[in-house]
Fold each of these.
Amino acid sequence: MNTRAEFARLAYRGRTASIGFAYGPFVRFDAAPSGKRTFGTPKDEMAAIRAALDVAERQIAALASASGGEAAQILEFQVALLTDEDLLDPIFAAVQSGTPADEAWSAALEEQIEGYNSAPDEYLQARSSDLADLRDRVLVTLRGSVNEAPGVPGGAIVCADDMPPSRFLEIDWSEGGGLALLRGSPTSHVALLARSRGIPMIVQLGAVAAGARTALLDAAGGMLELDPGPDQIDSFELRREAHRNSRAAAHAILRRPAALWEGEKIRLMINIQRVEDLGHADAEFADGIGLMRTEFLLGGQAGLPSEETQYAAYQAVLRWAGERPVTIRTFDAGGDKPVPGFTESGEANPFLGVRGLRLCLVRPDIFVVQLRALARAAVDGNLKVMFPMVTTPEEVEAGRSLFAKAVSQLQADGIPAKLPELGIMIEVPAAALTIEQFNASFFSIGSNDLTQYVTACDRSNGKLGKLNDPLNPAVIELIRRTVQHGKRAGVNVSLCGDMAAEPHCIPALLHCGLRELSVNPSALGEVKQAIATLGSGGSS
Amino acid sequence: MLETSKANGQNIVGSVRLVHAEGMHARPAVKLTKLAKKFKANIFIRASTGDDWINAKSVAKVMALRAARDSIIEIKATGEDAEAAVKALTNLVAADFPDGGP
């Protein structure tokens, strides 16, 4: 009678980590292998745990030599734990007094994991999944299924508490399927893997009922439905079909070869606010990342971000981009983006105050941490770095000198690092008017601030809407000069403000000579189409 | 910053400021315990006076210290190579855990 109510109870909401739809068998893939083993005498159990620790150590050593870099360092920590007497002795003592090997091991590792989970520091919290990985690796050996992922049927909706990347890679995704995590995060390594393989994924579902046989995973709407009834399946298929159609239309535009205008290729890059933005389905069609903002790193609960936290974020973006260029902008705090403990307070006119590079130069304690993380990331990919809110060449040189010092310090410590290509934002009229004085590898025009400063209009004041116009001839003139100087000097120029995504502004930008625009991922299709329309109109 | 002194004949003690930007995170903790294990001496550390001493050869314990940047790491060792151990460990921390160290 009340089947409808029961169905409703079995729908769960989470956060989208990788967009897509999947319908298939529901499989709980619990982090801790749950099979019970028959246990022997304390002597047998001691032999079993010692053997399992040996196997784990050999497996991790093999993984470390195959992966290298940061992964190898994390794995080295796991190896160190496997030979840690203070950790192992109580486990051995428990086993000798009759506790089964797997229970003793689990209990000791759980205690460690709890400790890390309750740490205030994001970095330490992230280590808890390394410990869970180690716990499970040893348990799998103890319970006698060495290196074998529990059987996951093809196309299954896999549900787990959380999942380390190594587990994800052990599952056969060739028939599709999806991933539903009770905890997890859209910025995790496993989320990046799911997006790159097109596996739909939802995280942070909280708790999910056990024992379901089939599931619908709608990772566009962020919903998981268990043992669905016919009406739920119908509704799901309609949503899947609508999603497919809208994707197909967008793909048809995005998949076309690069937009051409007057026979020249227009490079279309994307602006991202945070690593998760790369999960946007259209992001993959970009020619690179024209602007990665880094202010999101300043918003954490744990205070200012550590070098490791930043390095991990930059590395994740570079890994996503592969060969494509990635331009990361150093902290642009201040103005309308106050950050406690960093920005100046009580400025009468913060847009004209100590913001962007100005602020970074007076807070080298914070700036150098970012420069170190960037210098380390530069080793891993096609990284470019730019300074925001530049007024004079002296500021750029001061920033460059801090950067160079950070690189030599890292290298002296034996940490791989290099100075990436260094460019500047053109948003202060003084810089645009004296552009030939600047030594930079590239210029990126920040048209929002440039317009605000050229027209003397506070961009946050809605009453000035009409006056704050990026098509004001004075703004266009400064853009044109910047592009012309770039052409003469052989320095790349791009534009990353909102006007790049406005179809009515695009003709003016192309006429100024711009050949590279950077827009939000969701605007890529529309911008590409606008250029294609202009291109075919202009050439005939 | 770096000082070693003999206390009561057997215990060798030293102290050093943790300059590593991240504090005592995984990479430095692994390096410190690896180096400590090269010595026969019993080696203990703590991150502030008055705390319990913990085994410098245990990476789980060293991580659990959660020593922040600029904390003073005290090192204490007993045994035949205690003096060399304290010297090597203070050098490692003072030099900010260089790669390819001793």
Note: Helices of chain B lie at 26-36, 59-64, 82-94.
Amino acid sequence: MSSVQEPGSVGIVETKYFTFAEPPNELQLESGKKLGPITLAYETYGEMNEDKSNCILILHALSGDAHVAGKHHPDDRKPGWWDSMVGPGKAFDTNKYFVICSNVIGGCKGSTGPSSIDPATGKPYGLRFPVVTISDMVNAQKHLIDHLGIKQLLCVVGGSMGGMQALQWAVSYPDMVKLAIPIATTARLSAQAIAFHAVGRHAIMADPNFANGDYYGKAIPSAGLRIARMIGHITYLSDQAMHRKFGRGLQDKTAPSFDFVTDFQVESYLNYQGDEFVKRFDANSYLYITKAMDYFDLSQPSGDLRRELARAKAAFLVISFSSDWLFPSYMSKEIVTALRRNNIDVTYTEIQSDSGHDAFLLETETLTNLIVNFLEYANQRDNDI
Amino acid sequence: MPISETMTSNPVDLENYRRIFDERPEFRYIVDMIRPGSRVLDLGCGEGHLLKVLQLEKRARVQGIELSEQAIQACVAKGLFVYHGDLDEGLADFNDQSVDYVILTSTIQVLHRPDFLILEAARVGRECIISLPNFGYWKNRLQLFFLGQMPKTKTLPYEWYDTPNIHLTTIRDFVRFCRERGLDILETVFLVTERLPCRRVKFCPNLFADYAIFRLRRREGSTSG
């Protein structure tokens, strides 16, 4: 199956659902609370091989979902969020690999989250949904992987919060992860990133429509969610990227308007991103998922990242981007140092890019080069054992 | 699970990678210095040719540090584990004596603080293998003496303004450095590499060799650095 072909699309795909943790077997959460039943929305691409040794789990970021590649309908405006990397002849080559992605718990794209119906009340959970962590998300995914009958994942991979989950997978289930590719991520969220999340959450909760999270079926806190997303987008770009994309360009006008409507292209961009996000994302999920990221600290409980990573058995490919100031390269280096001190095989590279944190979705060519070879080599290693 | 122990050394692969010896004849001598099954760290490993030969031929467990993103991609394509790092920042990530060999091939002369990195290499490696162009080579001396110009040779092909070689040394300087900094020289290979086949130099190497390889280790009880 190594014949070279033009990279293609996975075509029309559909989201599947898996429900587990029915009471009394609820999922035990890190907070001490329990959650169940849980439904995970997931998509798969490619074919599982006979010994189920070609399975790759992709883990999505804050606003992502299970829909990684292809389209649900032929007339969908856009394909899945990492379509550039997943498909026949692409980095995660669906001619070779069986690719899985599931929406995280706490999300709003088909998996159980605050907008789901609480079986105890028959109404949406709202803020009665328990706070979940990255490790809870991974524990839920583990049920899905078991359900699919997979004993070991060839690779876990993700950017940003997806990278956090990849690291968590490697530590929580070391025997189930052969390769891990954490991209543009960190072993513990920085104070700066927590601060941006906090401002976003404040914007949502200060929205008069928020109604303590019980806004379902009524006017939603769209102004707050919109601001949260605008702040987010500022942190995903970089000074250079903003200069390149917008500069000081004016939007649909040749002279400043001397009032407070949108003047600059960068304003228009943020407005657009905010508006689009409000259409597709639930404000409560934004609260829960940012909180899960805030709590992420792989160096706990000991406080020593090297010690906590000692359990990992995977080989790692750690990637950062030079202009990413939300998850700067030093955070990836911290992971690499801890892995190396444990004698774990790790490759680290910082990719030159001016696209900021968003680079993990944009630097397709470089990522493809690295990932194709890294995965190929893993197969080679497999055959040699 | 050391990767190298699970790699079958495919003889065709090995022959392919050995072609690098045509361009870098000194690699042959460096490979010969390495005991089979060792842990090797190559500082400034480039595209990983030397590491790949060591992995296949000596079943070494290899890793590299490299600054160039493109070179790292080439290493990943060879199935090597490499780390993107700046050698001028030292080897703080590595524990004392944690690898069998630290290798520096034609690298120390481009560093800002070669003395610092050599001592770091001797701290991390049980042994170090350091290779360098010899500035004391007679052709360099003649060009400087008779033409009054910065020497340009096959081993030092740059103009004064575009050379990456900012800390060139002679064999004599390097031997003195090792003596003063508590490094024992265990083995030396002096070569003329500018004409192939490359040959070893026994007589007056500081004058007749354009290239030198030193295998060294930190002197017992020495903490210099």
Note: Chain B touches chain A at residues 1, 3, 6-8, 63, 69, 72-73, 75-77, 79-85, 93-95 (CB under 8 Å).
Amino acid sequence: MQRSAVFAVECAWGSEILSFEVLEERFGAENMKKVFAGSGIRNRRIAPPGVCGSDLAFEAAETLFGKYDVDRASIDLLIHCTQSPDYLIPTTACILQDRLGLEKHCGAFDLNLGCSQYVYALAMASSAIASGVATQALVLTGDTMSQTIHPMDRALVPILGDGGSATLVGPVADGEGFLGFELGTDGSGHKYLINPASGFRVPRSAETAMVETDREGNVRSQQNLFMNGAAVFHFAITVVPKTVQKVLEKVKLSMDQVDLFLFHQANRYMIDYLVKKLKIPEEKTHFFVENTGNTSGTTMPSVLADAIAAGKVKPGAVVLMVVFGVGLSWAATVVRWPEKSLPLKVQA
Amino acid sequence: MNDEDFLRFFADAVGAEEGSVTLDTQLSTLEGWDSVAYLSTMIYLDESVGVAVSPEQLVEAKTVADILAFAHSPQ
């Protein structure tokens, strides 16, 4: 079985900054003080109108290709993760294959998951390489969730940002790379994080566009994203520790043998709690949420890229990534960072 | 955690004066019993008795004593 690993990862975030000060004016200083204390998010990176998640994924991919001198012809699988596609039809991954100048022998598809998308996509890329379906895969994430929320929803506006990423996944020697995955789903919680009138089940109408204010003062319509924060928090603190244990059992490693634990950067409050509950020393984790906001599926490649830049991911290091969110859906993987991770070149 | 510990924590979580909240206090009378207080209650109980009371249970609870009952008899 051909093993695989992350060769390189690059990110791009929305070009505009929605600052703490702007939101203080919108929601009041007292509210924002509370929000910052809980979320650890000061500024949010927002994509301006007209910019789609795929534009951020494209930007990240171009950076990755340039920086690592990637031969585009060597990529034979493109997985694009998004919940804010360019169109419902056709698949955005097909448009990206063309925009990025990838070969026509490259398979391409979208993966519709939110915060858990990145590790799911890594699982699909790793499986495709293991089975010989692909040799080198490009995993893209790209979402502009800020465009799905009502500007006066004070539960979500201070939290969410827009971002995209590009990750090259390629073959490595036995014993290196992805050691195992643990995936999970609890669809009974789909109602806790939902954009109700966003598909075919609830067609958009004048009625679904009507704006309402809930008892905590959050404003939204049926066409906006809704989150039951307490329910999602409860889900995270019950599911994440079990998932970490399960994936470690699967790969036969103990907590002590992991060099770095990376969590979906939902908000600082939640990650701090998970780190404490799992008794992880602070130097064995990494945070990246304060100046981007929660960028849905792009938080994991963002925190990974930042940890690599900070020198926390050395060759041979064991890295555990765990993601969780809308669906409800979750995934974890354990990776032994390869000694050498260079993009493949196509044989002349 | 005993009842006094929880009442002390809970009064602070809902922004009430210490001693003003009892086991019989109706949650609907507490202005600060909002989603932020739900989160801190969930965490407090998860840490002190190892039970993360669900948001459905927190909505169902009528009094402070009801919350403690859920924490002591997990589903």
Note: The interface with chain A takes residues 34-36, 38-39, 42-43, 46-47, 52, 54-56, 58 of chain B (CB under 8 Å).
Amino acid sequence: MQCGIGRFGLKWDAFLGVGAAAAALALAPVVALALIALRAGEGQWRHLAANVLPDSAYETLVLSAGVLAFVVVVGTACAWIVTAFDFPGRRVVETLLLLPLAFPAYVLAYAWLDLTHPVGPLQSGLRALLGYARPSDFRLPDLRTLPGAMLIFGLALYPYVYVAARAVFLSQMTNLAEAARMLGKSGATIFFRIALPLARPAIAAGGALALMETLNDIGAAEFLSVNTLTAAVYSTWVNRSDLPGAAQIALAMLIFVLLLVVMERMGRGGRSYAVIGRNMRPLAPRRVEGFAGLALAALVTLPALFGFIAPAAHLVYQAFLRLAHAGMPGEILAETGNSLLVAVLTTLVCVAGALMVTGGVRLMRSPLRRALLQISAVGYALPGTVLAIGLLVVLGGLDALVRGGAALLGAKPPGLLFSASLTAIVLALSLRFFRLATSKIETGLERLSPSLDNAARTLGRSPFAVLREIHLPLLKPTIAGAALLVFVDCMKELPATLLLRPMNFETLSTHLYGETARGTYENGALAACVIVAFGLLPVALLTRLGRRESEAREERS
Amino acid sequence: MKPPALSFANVRHDYRAGVSALDGVSLDVAPGEIVALLGPSGCGKTTLLRIGAGLERQSAGRVALNGVTMADERAFAPPEKRGVGLMFQDYALFPHLDVKANIAFGLARGVDAGPVVADLLRRIGLAGREHDYPHMLSGGEQQRVAMARAMAPRPVVLLMDEPFSNLDQRLRRGMRAQTVELLRENAAAAVLVTHDPDDAMAVADRIALMREGRIVQCASPEDIFRNPVDLFAARFFSELAEIPAQVRQGRAETSFGSFAARGLADGPALVCIRRDAFSLRSEEAEFAAIVRAVRFLGDRRLVVLDVDGVAEPIEALVDARNDVAIGEKVGVSLDRTEVFAFPVA
């Protein structure tokens, strides 16, 4: 049975208004990109196609392929090991493996570059250990290469696959695995013939998200000297001020993105992504004792060690040194304030907008509203640079309009009102993270019986009153969760903020970018620590969910 | 004369072109009357209820409350403007509100909810439970609170969607009686949807039997039970032995007797016998049968009979004290009011 009212004609209301506005805003940057790219002279395109695109596209492809292989293998293997085997410390490792989620790729790249610097702690320590006197006598291979970048991106992003695959292993395959056991099949067969095929859609979806993050990244690729398409968009605009050129590369990137969206959609099968199952009876893991157990524990700890423990420890140590040496730098507080401002505003916009749009779809079900909801969420797939360049085109047009209007009225032309402003950043981040909020809230709404809505309607409530009096109070935890996700992603966001910020407006992430780009690593540690600390919040939430589920598991057994 | 509390006139509903859930339904519910919409799942009864509530808009036809049009081709009043009470199959109590706030939810602003809620709670036997939350109530208590909530705003008509389906057999009987009592006290018109003929018979003044989007028959429980219009209506209320027969001049002839078949054309027909129609070892036996199997059911005894000239064995429900042995030859008589003749479908 469906909820809501069918067969309404197109009747304008607040829900539809918000939905239409959100969809229009989401589409505007893409349309603007297409328009400006078409307008550019053919000469520029030839130059780009001949000199910029092939290299960037090649490096992006190779990087993506490497990252995909890494996250799929490491993510799936870890998920299987922690669900199918019981070894000493399994509970702890299960959680540790989630921690790299707290590291945006650019922070991880920053931390490892500092850690493996020729005169950094790792190489100095190794030299001392091996008896070499000077850095020129002994050197680890340079991280600033394509393989190095694959490793860093892979370490930062494998949890996407780990979480998705683990959810499947925990919730969906117990009966099948038991059936296979009863038919006399052992561990390896169960993994390859049952677990892997079952989890393949989830793994594909997780892999697609990891690749979207790779395409989105601007800092890590640059620090690691990889010339990706994103970096090309950025430098074409920032260094050469060639907006049509940047738009053209951005459009080329959209083809990559489209492939990823298809991959993720097919994987998700229309469902929300990180559903950590409820009411599940997990697979009984096989006990591995003694040396073999310890070896297994050590093996699955490696990704967490390199992806979180070592870099985090280094950052904390560096930040501590810095604080002891020079005290708390004032700009860190100001930058944290700016980051918080951007994140809070974006979170408010996203959550309020998402409530109106998803609530409208539920309460007034109509194909139009559903379509608007889906369009309004496209921003999640757009790399931050692409989105920012598209918005620059739109907002630049608005600014030109304002200036033209001012000139016409004989007034003094104002500065740029929209192009580089707090509004622009909040708008860009809202578009990018809108789907985080809508998909969470949609999942929450699906859990409420439609007859609750209908009951309230027949007892005299308008659709908006149902949203306020029924949905809002019942969805409080869901809304808090959605807000937290959006908030933290905003705190970590770099590319769009970097392109759209006003002069002298620094956030934690742009500060870190600046320090690393200048090569003054030691000054960035504090900002990096703050970013990672915020990044840990949703991980804590994830593990709390995990704990609740394992408690339930123990109760049942 | 007062207009009907709720009136459906020629209501049609098409989910998609060519797929109709309702195919021209007309039904008037008088003030204070309790009508049951009875039918198998998918017959359109719930759709009709939702159209009455305004949760669904019909494709054609008119819905009126107290003579005022709520929905037709031009106008459509949304549910919150109708003043119709709807009770849901899953009760739909708001989990974040306590019993009092749930019941008071539909009351107009400015109305003092306290006395209204207290009075309703007393009547449903839950006095003093104002501050319990829905999850603290048993299934039967939730059902009663849901009903009190729907009735609190004194709706023109109370619609109930399978009100007893979530209750176990024992609880059901009590709740049926209590529901009727509550409805009568409030003199509210009510329409309940059910697939269970026992629910319908126990509660309704009138039963509208539905099939494939149409009302097949609409009559009082006794009338519809005694005079089913067709094989479907007869089958819906009880199990039947269906025996092929030949109609000749208004009589259906079988190997064991002839039965009234008024209005049936000459030719093949079915004689349908309710399991309660049989008397065994009767003084004035009409025909003989051999007992094939016997099963004791507590208050009744199920006897399976072989009758000469009838291919399938026939099931009869008789008094439990009426003990018969397998293989015994018994004389059988039939209560003719429980025997029907219908044309072969």
Note: Residues 169-186 of chain B form the longest helix (18 residues).
